[in-house]
């Protein structure tokens, strides 16, 4: 067995997502399992280079996990010929410029979404990457979750017949930060820093709908700021200038309609923090992060509306749990493995910067729809 080291510059690992999901649960998890076995006698060994602005925080993480390489100099890291891949999980407003530099340096790039603050910038990144001949990928973690993988299995099996509608509920209460610390960073609520739930979540909904049901062809959205004042990490009040909730209707190629509510100002009364109900002519399913329940048309009850009597049916008991039928690894780690295989062996991989641009486009058009109070067509993007 030949071990091949792939050195990955990881920018933004001091943040919540960059540290937990990408460094600890993906790259370090791959190291703990002995590397990534490519099946051809080669094992890829990921060697992270921790990159960011706060050297003391980077060194603390490196010491905690026994890592060697730390830097606050992006240009120097990108100039290092031993660095193969650049990964970005910085704040959105800093991402586009760093990705441009990495592409220019000839590094393969893998990045969180959104890839840029606007469609023009996102498409330009995809063009630059194509012209430079590098491999590139965008994190699209939701489709690697167990619940949605089981939902995809039902779609591929034709379980739904003709899909009629998709209803999604996402969100939870993010504390304002005054009497309890907020669970999300304050920049998420400042539009000038690239924050806002439309910018954050609509790119997710784009690839979920696209992968499972088809291309989004129109959007009608209402974005609002329910909590106008919040308190930052230092306990100081600030004005929330970005939307903390968005209510969207999406038309899907083929005729299905999706309605998705996204909110950081909602208290959870559902089984999981995100759930999708899919209704089709032959059956329905409800999928969350881990679970998926289904009801076929042959097993669909016949409820009768009678508000004068208490309900005697337990409606949730009338659905069947979709079995795992497989072992599901962490969704972020699963996509990292596919991307690293793509980098090393050129295996097919379509979650690229162009796919990322579709998400940026939907967020941009969603904000436009909300501002103008109208439904907006979503044209296909192309280089």
Key attributes of the depicted protein:
seven-stranded mixed β-sheet; globular; 26% strand; nine-stranded mixed β-sheet; 9 helices; 383 residues; alpha/beta; 32% helix
Tell me what the structure shows.
This protein has helices spanning 16-32, 55-65, 74-79, 92-104, 119-132, 146-156, 197-212, 331-345, 353-372; strands spanning 2-11, 36-37, 42-51, 69-71, 83-88, 108-111, 136-138, 163-171, 216-224, 229-231, 237-239, 245-252, 257-263, 274-280, 283-287, 292-296, 320-321, 376-377. With 383 residues, the protein is α/β, with parallel strands linked by helices. Strands 17-16-15-14-8-13-12-9-18 form a 9-stranded mixed beta sheet. Strands 1, 2, 3, 4, 5, 6 and 7 form a 7-stranded mixed beta sheet that branches. It starts with a strand and ends in a 6-residue tail after the last strand.
Total count of helical runs of at least 4 residues: 9
Distance between the termini: 40 Å
Q: Mean pLDDT, rounded to whole units? A: 96
The structural class is alpha/beta
Summarize the structure.
With 383 residues, the chain is α/β, with parallel strands linked by helices. 32% of the residues lie in helices and 26% in strands.
SSE layout and pairing:
Elements: E1 2-11, H1 16-32, E2 36-37, E3 42-51, H2 55-65, E4 69-71, H3 74-79, E5 83-88, H4 92-104, E6 108-111, H5 119-132, E7 136-138, H6 146-156, E8 163-171, H7 197-212, E9 216-224, E10 229-231, E11 237-239, E12 245-252, E13 257-263, E14 274-280, E15 283-287, E16 292-296, E17 320-321, H8 331-345, H9 353-372, E18 376-377
Parallel strand pairs: 1-3, 1-5, 3-4, 5-6, 6-7, 8-13
Antiparallel strand pairs: 2-3, 8-14, 9-12, 9-18, 10-11, 12-13, 14-15, 15-16, 16-17
């Amino acid at each position: 067995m030949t071990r091949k080291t792939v050195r990955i510059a990881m920018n933004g690992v001091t943040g919540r997502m960059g540290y937990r999901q990408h460094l600890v649960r993906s790259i370090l998890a791959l190291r703990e399992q002995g590397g990534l076995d490519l099946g051809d006698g080669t094992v890829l060994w990921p060697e992270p280079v921790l990159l960011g602005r706060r050297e003391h925080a980077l060194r603390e993480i490196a010491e905690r996990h026994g890592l060697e390489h730390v830097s606050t100099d992006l240009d120097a890291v990108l100039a290092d010929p031993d660095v193969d891949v650049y990964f970005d999980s910085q704040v959105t407003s800093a991402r586009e410029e760093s990705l441009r530099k990495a592409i220019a340096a000839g590094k393969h790039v893998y990045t969180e979404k959104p890839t840029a603050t606007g469609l023009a910038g996102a498409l330009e990144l995809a063009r630059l990457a194509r012209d430079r001949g590098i491999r590139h990928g965008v994190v699209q973690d939701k489709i690697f979750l167990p619940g949605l993988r089981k939902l995809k299995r039902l779609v591929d099996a034709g379980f739904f017949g003709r899909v009629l509608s998709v209803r999604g509920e996402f969100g939870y209460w993010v504390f304002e930060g005054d009497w309890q610390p907020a669970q999300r960073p304050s920049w998420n609520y400042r539009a000038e820093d690239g924050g806002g739930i439309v910018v954050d979540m609509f790119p997710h909904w784009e690839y979920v709908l696209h992968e499972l049901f088809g291309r989004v062809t129109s959007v009608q959205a209402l974005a609002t700021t329910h909590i106008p004042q919040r308190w930052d990490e230092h306990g100081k009040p600030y004005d929330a200038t970005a939307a903390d909730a968005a209510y969207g209707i999406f038309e899907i190629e083929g005729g299905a309609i999706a309605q998705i509510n996204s909110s950081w100002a909602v208290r959870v009364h559902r089984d999981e923090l995100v759930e999708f109900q899919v209704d089709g002519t032959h059956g329905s399913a409800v999928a969350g992060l881990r679970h998926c329940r289904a009801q076929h048309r042959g097993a669909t009850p016949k409820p009768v509306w009678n508000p004068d009597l208490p309900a005697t049916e337990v409606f949730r008991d009338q659905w069947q749990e979709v079995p795992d039928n497989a072992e599901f690894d962490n969704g972020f780690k699963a996509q990292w493995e596919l991307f690293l295989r793509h980098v090393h062996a050129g295996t097919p991989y379509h979650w690229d910067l162009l796919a990322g641009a579709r998400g940026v486009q939907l967020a941009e058009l969603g904000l436009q729809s909300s501002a103008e109070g109208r439904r907006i067509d979503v044209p296909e993007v192309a280089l």
